[in-house]
Amino acid sequence: MKDLTPFSLKEIQRKLNSINVQINLEHKETFPKERSRLLSFYQYKRRFIDISPQGYFSFSKLATSLIDFSFVRSLVASSYSKEGGHCFDPASIFLLHLSRYLDRFKSQRDFISLLHDQDQGRCYRAYAGIFYDRIPCESDFSNFKKRIGPEKFDEIFHVLVEIVKRVGLTSGKILSYDGTLFPTFANYRGCNYACKECRSIPLRDDFLKSLGYRVIDLLNHPSKIILGKERRSFAICPKDDLRASVKKRPTFRALSFCFIPKEDDQKRSELAYILGLEKRLSQVRWILSYP
């Protein structure tokens, strides 16, 4: 595609004018609580989007200036009731929740602390319809997520994906996303199966002796030691009936340890006791730490 005019900010704003109206017409369920019982109230307002000459801009300001999030209030209406006390507008809480991730705050606490800042938090309060004397705390965000549940969160994000699709930024023919990271053994080159023999793996004397010699060698050459750096020791697979195709008996990580400074009130290291190196380590005021 040579003509990128359909993806210009001006053209996207023009398309979203009608798309926002369509989305709100598709989600018309009335929120059960009266406005007077809401601690905040979100209202969509188009704002000027400032883009620096280097191309820097606020992701949260871009999202709130382009998309009308009023549909959130209707989408989660079934999770609220007419009874009960006051509550924050769910559109406000969701928008703050989204802004925190768009602008990459490290923690919820850091973001809430910024909301309390008179100047720096003004834009976020204005986007979400939050008043300075009624700023949500961490429990308000937790209660909101617990109240609507993960299913409603998915519904909200599906609507956002639909908006992006209608704008033309994605066709929807192939769409895949995953923002969750899990620790894996993707670079592991040992045994890939946990057999019944692995339920109780004996660490023989030769393993402990080898580990002890390794620690002593490091203590004899302290320049090699980086405090806090994880070191790993491997053991040989105990399984007897390995397949004929396995040419080399696999190994697995049996133990991880590191050297850390010893504090006055710190408990003794069980690993150093087993290896008989407590006295040697106390001389340099280090201990062996392991997960």
Descriptive account of the structure:
The chain has 291 residues and is mainly alpha-helical. It has two domains: 5-167, no CATH class; 196-289, no CATH class. It has ten helices and three strands. The chain has a three-stranded antiparallel beta sheet. Helix 2 (59-66) runs antiparallel to helix 4 (90-102) and helix 4 (90-102) packs across helix 6. The longest helix has 30 residues, at 138-167. The radius of gyration is 29 Å and the shape is elongated. The two termini are 53 Å apart.
Fill in the keyword field for this structure.
291 residues, mainly alpha, 2 domains
Produce the secondary structure layout.
Blueprint (H helix, E strand, L loop, with lengths): L8 H18 L32 H8 L4 H5 L14 H13 L5 H8 L6 H7 L9 H30 L37 H16 L10 E6 L14 E11 L8 H6 L2 H7 L1 E4 L2
Antiparallel strand pairs: 1-2, 2-3
Helix pairs in contact: 1-7, 2-4, 4-6
Number of helices: 10
Q: Which stretches of 5+ consecutive residues score pLDDT under 50?
A: none
State the shape. elongated
Which sheet architecture does the biggest sheet show?
3 strands, antiparallel
Order of helices and strands: HHHHHHHHEEHHE
**Beta-strand percent range:** 5-15%
How far is the N terminus from the C terminus?
A: 53 Å
Spatial order of the strands in the main sheet? Answer: 1-2-3
Overall helicity = 40-55%
What's the alpha carbon Rg, rounded to whole Å? 29 Å
Count of separate structural domains: 2
- Overall average residue pLDDT: 82
Protein structure class? mainly alpha
* Total number of strands: 3
